[in-house]
Amino acid sequence: MDTDFLVIGSGIAGLNFALKAARYGKVVIVTKDKIEESNTFYAQGGLAAVFGKDDSTRLHIQDTLRTGDGISNRKIAEILAKEAPKAVMELKRSGVRFDSDKDGFKLSREAVHSRARIVHVSDITGREIEKVLVKKVKENKNIVLLEYHMAIKLLTENKRCIGCVMLDVKNNRTLPIFSKKIILAAGGAGMLYSKTTNPEITTGDGMAIAFKAGAVLEDMEFIQFHPTMLHNSSPSLLISETLRGEGALLKNKYGKTYMKKYHRDGELAPRDVVARFSTIEMKKTGSKNVYLDITHLNEEYLKKRFHYIYEECLKYKIDITKDMIPVSPAAHYMCGGIKIDEYGRTNIASLYAIGECACTQLHGADRLASNSLTEGMVFGTRLIGKIKKEIKKDKIIRTKIRDNTVYHEKNGRIKKLRKQLQNIMWQHAGIIRSKKGLKIAHIKIDKIKKKLDIIKNQGINKEILELNNLIRLAKIIIISALRRKESRGTHFIKDYNERHDNIWQMHLTIDKEHVKLK
Ligand code: SIN
């Protein structure tokens, strides 16, 4: 199959890009599951954008930089803050019905936002955006959609990306797609951890195959943990930070608030701070969870504003208008990813990355809430603006692919190995790290890798490839975490308290030269 644009992933970044690219050429979107299944679909909060009368671009930039703990890229934060309102208006014109009143958008607040700035659709913002974009994609004659296809290998020739080999997941066969431009919009890797707010599909495939093809990754040690996942929920249920934005309080098992004693901003301190001190509070009180209490707000208002969370919690017999919600932290977002410039360009010609799998340096060491849907829109739009003219003169390059792939039946051992990996990462490369723990994790993960290699030699399938990708990323995260000799943002390591403000240490990049990873 040949195309002008090959988009891998179907969250907000990929779909927005695809719709715009379709004006200039043929687009193929490949996605591992059904098209809607993405982190975007589960996003509750919304899009950060300056619309409030008391707000300004300067304040949005300032809040982004503050959350990034000193290493967010100011220029990128400026681009985001300036272009965010346009991105939101585009979505509105496309049919996303953001909560509004006669004065304009109803804006909510999340941690570190100095103003109400989150444009939302109740507590199901991502779902509504995804629905609107998917509909438009399906109606577009220039877009071919391949669901249940997993990207397994980027094809390169003379340091240029020329396409990608896909695994047709349902029929277990491979399919090469050659393309003038290849855009990775494949999302994050929450599945690295035993507790995550992310769906099953988040196995970091985009980052892993890019790394293997020679792309540089950056800021990989910075994993954001969300403080409030409904404890023991399955599938995991996020309890949006917008609840804390509306005054919800975190309480320990004795019903006592605790965040103010750790940080002056209390519940609205940066996410890494809230996740860390909730973990500490849980340890201190010998509890596996803390509680979120929003019962002081009006019942009718709560049922309307947080309709989805209200309904979902009822399934666990928790009435959020009357009961405290048991919550605990969970892996939520990758601040790092494939290193790109301000137009989504990687170090490999014709290979681009946008959305969570990419690293613009916007988030730095921690991400300002609701900046990521906005980022997915803004940088996808910038990318098509940059490359749309190249498409006419670009040529499709094909190579012969020898397909001697052997397919493996589903295998219960893969599930077990994945679980082991997740537990190791949670214990040693999670919210509170140590040098010793990271080294132990590395050794243990090598053992899992050896077991996987034996299975992989007999054949592959989706689950095997996903685990292989997760292992590759786990090792990259651990190596990056060991290389950062300080605690900063989401990377909290007991061995280092002080910061190093040497410029060379601000962002750590990692490529195949750094690590011998197959
Ligand atoms: C939330 O609603 O708490 C999540 C928002 C985000 O991660 O940006």
Description:
A hairpin with a 2-residue loop joins strand 9 (149-157) and strand 10. It contains 16 helices and 20 strands. 37% of the residues lie in helices and 18% in strands. The chain has 518 residues and is an alpha/beta fold. The protein starts with a strand and ends in an 8-residue tail after the last strand. The chain has helices spanning 12-21, 39-42, 57-67, 74-94, 125-139, 205-213, 241-245, 259-262, 271-285, 299-305, 307-314, 371-387, 390-393, 412-428, 435-457, 462-483, and strands at 2-8, 27-30, 47-48, 100-101, 104-105, 107-108, 118-119, 143-146, 149-157, 160-168, 173-184, 217-218, 223-230, 249-251, 290-293, 325-334, 337-339, 351-353, 358-359, 509-510. The model has no long low-confidence stretch (mean pLDDT 95). The strands form five sheets. Strands 1, 2, 8, 9, 10, 11 and 18 form a seven-stranded mixed β-sheet that branches. Among the domains are: 227-331, Flavocytochrome C3, Chain A, domain 1, CATH 3.90.700; 413-517, Fumarate reductase/succinate dehydrogenase flavoprotein-like, C-terminal domain (Methane Monooxygenase Hydroxylase, Chain G, domain 1, Up-down Bundle), CATH 1.20.58.100. The relative contact order is 0.17. It binds succinic acid (SIN).
